[in-house]
Design brief:
- The chain has a single domain, classed as 4-Layer Sandwich (Purple Acid Phosphatase, chain A, domain 2), CATH 3.60.21.
- The strands form three sheets. The protein has a seven-stranded mixed β-sheet, with no helix packed on it. Strands 1-2-3-4-5-6 form a six-stranded mixed β-sheet. The protein has a three-stranded mixed β-sheet with strand order 11-10-14, with no helix packed on it.
- The chain is built from four helices and 16 strands.
- α2 runs parallel beside α3.
- The protein has 261 residues and is α/β, with parallel strands linked by helices.
- The chain is globular, with a radius of gyration of 17 Å.
- This is Metallophosphoesterase.
């Protein structure tokens, strides 16, 4: 899978000059007893800002479950959404939202477009991105992953699953990548950007447990882990090359990985 730089809980698609994150679940801290020492808003904004400084993307795409509660978006959550947009605009990046299954009330708190899927690199001019770094880049469809997308692409990037891998009792957020894994196209599953979600350990998960129609053969998906202590600008270049201490740790596909544990 070429042209992808892995950072902490985010992926930069260099040929589209786009940063993609998923599952912010804004308001989860307010809606539950789970909290972070510095607060949910500061944590989300600080980490997104670090990624913006590290990659300087033209576009930031949030692949669904932008907010957590289904029925309403509180004033505090509205403030967090505004702060995230301000962080993007402060670096000259467009902030594009894709709807997830949690986002029924999102339209009441966001005055921009909310899409079912966001298409990058459409050679036919029917894509959503106004800026594409490479006209020959693969057509990439960003969607949440709870439903099958209508758009066809060379690569699909989704959230929804909240994947982690458990190694020696330590659960780590991970990406899952599969060559030709959905409709003959590449598939990239992102970890949840929120740190308030525990995530789902995929070590022993079978295909039907993933709750996503885009995961058609879990055994083909290979985990990628980035050290959570590394900043986005230490994440390395596309495909993680030259990443230094932020170089992603790549594991074999789950079908083989299970046999190693």
């Amino acid at each position: 899978m070429t042209g992808v730089a892995f950072a902490e809980r985010a992926a930069y698609l260099d040929r589209h000059d786009a940063l993609v994150v998923a599952d912010l679940h804004v308001g989860r801290g307010e809606a539950s007893a789970v909290s972070l020492p510095i607060g949910e808003r500061e944590d989300l904004v600080d980490r997104l800002t670090a990624l913006l400084h590290g990659f300087d993307p033209a576009t930031v795409v949030v692949a669904g479950d932008v907010v957590h509660t289904f029925d309403r978006v509180t004033d505090r959550s509205r403030g967090t959404l505004a702060a995230l947009r301000d962080a993007c605009e402060g670096r000259g990046a467009d902030c594009e939202l894709v709807a997830g299954n949690h986002d029924a009330a999102l339209s009441g708190a966001w005055d921009g477009p909310i899409r079912e899927e966001y298409v990058l690199g459409a050679a036919d001019g029917e894509g959503d991105s106004a800026v594409d770094a490479d006209p020959d880049a693969p057509r990439t469809v960003v969607c949440h992953g709870h439903e099958a997308p209508s758009a066809r692409g060379d690569r699909y990037v989704i959230g929804h699953v909240h994947p982690t891998i458990e190694i020696e009792g330590d659960r780590r957020p991970c990406f899952l990548r599969g060559e030709g894994a959905y409709r003959g196209a590449d598939l990239l599953v992102l970890p949840a950007f929120t740190r308030l979600a525990p995530g789902v350990a995929v070590n022993d998960m079978r295909t039907n447990a993933f709750d996503s129609p885009l995961v058609t053969d879990a055994d083909r998906l290979a985990p990628v882990v980035v050290d959570p202590g590394d900043d986005a600008d230490d994440a390395g270049g596309a495909d993680g090359e030259g990443g230094g201490r932020g170089e992603p740790l790549r594991f074999p596909p789950l079908g083989e990985f299970r046999e190693l544990l």
